[in-house]
Amino acid sequence: MIFKQWAAGDRTRLDSPYHIDRLRFAQAQQEPEKWKGYIEGHQELSTFGKIDDPAIMMDYMKESTALTREVLSTADGLFCTAASCGSGVLYEEKKTTGEVKYHYPAGTIVVDEAGTVQRPHLMIPIMAFPGAHRLVLAGDSKQLPAFVANPDTKKWWPDCYLEKVRGLIIPRHLLHLRLAARLFAVYLE
Q1: Do 42 and 125 sit in the same domain of this protein?
Q2: Are 174 and 182 in contact (CB under 8 A)?
Q3: What is the DSSP letter of 147?
Q4: Rounded CA gap, 24 and 43, in Å?
Q5: Are the C-beta atoms of residues 139 and 162 closer than 8 Å to each other?
Q6: Angle between helices 54-73 and 36-48 in degrees, nearest 10
Q7: Which residue range forms the structural domain that includes residue 154?
Q8: What confidence tens digit (pLDDT) does each residue in 161-176 have?
C-alpha cells in the first residue's frame, strides 16, 4: 500500500504524523548508519515514487520490517485492519521450533465496524494479540452487513459475529484471550 501511495504522490496520507512510513523514517534518522538501506530506499521512493534497484529494494524491505517492529514496541496504540493484524511484522515465527515472538503487546483489541466482520476474520486480531485481555466489538449489524461473495461460505457463517453475541452475557473467563481455545469454541457455536 505504501508503494502505491508514493507512486500516486498521495502526500495527504504519507504526511500524517502517525503514518507508519513517517514513524519509521523518523526512527531511522536517529541512527542513520544502522538504517542506511532503509533511508536510501525511502529517498528513492520520495523522489521517484518507486525503487528500481533490486539491492536497494531488498535492503529497504528488510530494514522496513525491523524498523516497524522497533516503532511498534514503543507505541501506545495500534490501528490497523483485521487482515493486517495477521502481518508478519507483528510477530516472528522460528521455523525450526515453531516458537512465536510477538512484537506488540496489546492489552485491548477494539474491532470497529464489527457488524461487517465475519467470524473467521474476527479471529485474525484475536490470534495476533494473544496477550490481550479485552475484546471490544463496536458496530451495528443492521447498518451494513458482512460481505461474503462465496455462497458456500454463507452456509457456514450466514451472519456476523456481532449479531451472534448481541444480547448475550458472556462469562468473563471466556473473554480472557490467552485462552484462545475456549474463545474459539464459543466463536464456532
Answers
A1: no
A2: yes
A3: P
A4: 13
A5: yes
A6: 110
A7: 83-188
A8: 666 666 665 554 444 4
